[in-house]
Design goal:
The protein is mainly α. The protein contains 21 helices and 5 strands. A hairpin with a 2-residue loop joins strand 2 and strand 3. Helix 15 crosses helix 16 and helix 17 packs across helix 18. The radius of gyration is 31 Å and the shape is extended.
Length: 448
């Protein structure tokens, strides 16, 4: 009976399978999905030419709106956002002032559009997503946004006159947002588009003047406050876009990515533990905060100012390096170093006392939280980073038992004058006790 029942069930299943027929409309729909190219992450995203990305959701969840523009939209990702329309109107005004100036050279709006049109496909390939704008709309966006940026640079750099009632200058808070918004990863246009428009709109005599790189870096230096000599060294620097340009200006030419070593590299400990092991941290004297060195038990780190601008810049540089496979990972490495060094606000407090950090961001606890978030959820290969040798050397020094024991003794008993006096009193008491014990034994032995 059991055998016949099982056979009947199997027959029923076979009939059910035979009864189901493939839906031809479903097949057609699936074939259509197969043939359609990806929209949210296009094929171009895997090419080295792609350099403008949507920030990964994992980073957005950690750092919130740090990647989104606050007052101005550049490029297609935030185009048409309601909260950015105020500056959209001023873009047209700036384009008008530029056109009125180049009119004396016999150039007009049509010439700008014609100059950018051959760059359309190359520019589209720079974005990780398919841009659903037709040719006319895309070229218009490139010209409008590019001319606005260039005209803003020229006005701030006093290369062209600025109207005294220009609200973008009379309202001081706006410029601070421009510095940040123009260096957000999702808010970029290709650098070669800016170069094309910059070269075309130069007036007679300006060919021998400052380059686009120079006026761009000088513009952002109002927020970075680097020495003019440091900025002048990068007058011929070219980036993929403005964020990449400023990022590259911080990377010294001798800070290359090393090859993978034979032994694995390990992350270093936080400031508190390093101090107990006798490792000190001193401010370095290099031009860039990325130049970190370790010698003689001392980590040398150039001073970095943590404020609203620098926090935004660091986060967007890390996001860019996470998305672009072909660029170096210097900022990701530096973010990891800071994350290793800082566990609590006390670590931040020490770095501030040593003039390694300047805090214009918030409380020490808020800076610690920012640093920890900066290094969270990022892909990072410590074995091939530019600081891999430093991580190794610090770890070897830390593991040296003599260093650790002696430093721990000093840290425990010589940290403050009171702890030193207590240790000294305990030592004197111990010596007196030993002396008393010796004389007691000696006198007893002598009597015998």
């Amino acid at each position: 009976m059991g055998s016949s029942k099982q056979t009947g069930e199997e027959q029923g299943n076979e009939e059910a399978v035979k009864a189901w027929e493939i839906n031809k409309d479903r097949i057609a729909c699936m074939q259509k999905q197969i043939s359609e190219p990806p929209r949210l992450l296009s094929k171009a995203a895997g090419r080295s030419s792609c350099c403008i990305f949507r920030v990964p959701q994992s980073l957005v969840e950690v750092n919130g709106r740090s990647y989104q523009p606050r007052i101005v939209s550049i490029g297609p990702f935030h185009r048409g956002s309601a909260q950015l329309k105020m500056i959209e109107e001023h873009k047209w005004r700036y384009l008008g002032s530029l056109l009125s100036r180049i009119q004396s050279r016999g150039l007009g709006l049509e010439d700008l559009l014609k100059a950018v049109q051959p760059l359309e496909m190359k520019a589209r390939d720079c974005y990780s997503e398919a841009i659903h704008l037709d040719t006319d709309e895309f070229i218009e966006m490139m010209v409008l946004d590019g001319c606005f940026i260039i005209e803003l640079f020229r006005k701030v750099g006093k290369l062209v006159s600025c109207q005294p009632d220009d609200p973008l200058f009379s309202m001081a808070w706006l410029l601070a947002f421009f510095y940040r918004d123009l260096l957000r990863l999702e808010n970029q246009i290709p650098y070669f588009v800016l170069e094309c428009l910059f070269d075309l709109t130069q007036m007679p005599g300006e060919e021998s003047g400052p380059s686009l790189s120079s006026i761009a870096l000088e513009f952002f230096n109002n927020a970075m406050l680097r020495p003019d000599a440091d900025i002048a060294k990068y007058h011929d620097l070219k980036g993929k876009h403005l964020l990449d340009l400023v990022r590259m200006s911080y990377i010294p030419s001798d800070q290359g990515e090393p090859h993978r070593g034979e032994t694995p590299t390990h992350v270093i400990h936080c400031v508190s533990k390093l101090r107990r092991a006798g490792i000190k941290l001193n401010p370095g004297k290099a031009d860039s905060f990325l130049v970190v060195k370790f010698r003689g038990g001392v980590i040398e780190m150039p001073t970095i100012t943590i404020d609203d601008f620098m926090s935004s810049f660091l986060m967007n540089c890390v996001a860019y390096e996470q998305c672009h496979s072909s660029c170096s990972k210097h900022f990701t490495t530096y973010a990891t170093l800071l994350d290793c060094l800082v566990n609590t606000y006390k670590d931040v407090e020490y770095l501030i006392d040593r003039n390694i950090l300047e805090n214009y961001f918030g409380t020490d606890a808020e800076v610690a939280r920012f640093i920890n978030n900066l290094g969270k959820d990022i892909a990072f290969d410590i074995d091939i980073c530019y600081l891999s040798r430093l991580f190794d050397d610090v770890n070897q020094y830390y593991k040296n038992s003599w260093h650790v024991q002696w430093a721990s003794f000093k840290y425990t008993y010589f940290k403050t004058p009171w702890s030193f006096l207590s240790a000294l009193a305990a030592l004197i008491l111990l010596l007196l006790t030993l002396a008393q014990t010796f004389y007691t034994i000696y006198s007893t032995y002598k009597k015998i």
